[in-house]
Specification:
CATH superfamily: Glutaredoxin
Number of domains: 1
Strand content: 15-25%
Helix content: 40-55%
CATH topology: Glutaredoxin
Shape: globular
Structural class: alpha+beta
CATH class: Alpha Beta
Length: about 110
């Protein structure tokens, strides 16, 4: 059965060029992985992104997991496409791939 909040997840990932579903907020992350993901995005030059605190909305977290088939957070989307978690974007940043992807999809 498809989760009824899938459409909310879809709308959210299309709301900004960069979206992060995380534990906590960018200013007060509630886990090290979320903190690292925000740090990497900022290091890559992202200044304007949507952040969704999954801890404040358990049903949305369940829908997110169903949408991406990825069981952990943070989950980062760039231009509506699921990219991965903090390890993946960290590796992409180190190789310069994240910056290239952001150049193609945002004006950061």
């Amino acid at each position: 059965m498809t989760h009824p909040l899938i459409s909310k997840v879809e709308e959210t990932v299309k709301s900004k060029p960069v979206v992060i579903f995380m534990k906590g907020t960018p200013h007060f992350p509630h886990c090290g992985f979320s903190a690292r993901a925000v740090k990497v995005l900022r290091a890559a030059g992202v200044t304007d992104f949507a952040a969704v605190d999954v801890l404040s909305d358990d049903p949305l977290w369940e829908a997110l997991e169903e949408f991406t088939q990825w069981p952990t957070v943070p989950q980062i989307f760039i231009h509506g496409k699921f990219i991965g978690g903090s390890d993946i974007i960290s590796e992409m940043y180190e190789r310069g791939e994240l910056q290239e992807l952001l150049k193609k999809t945002t004006h950061t």
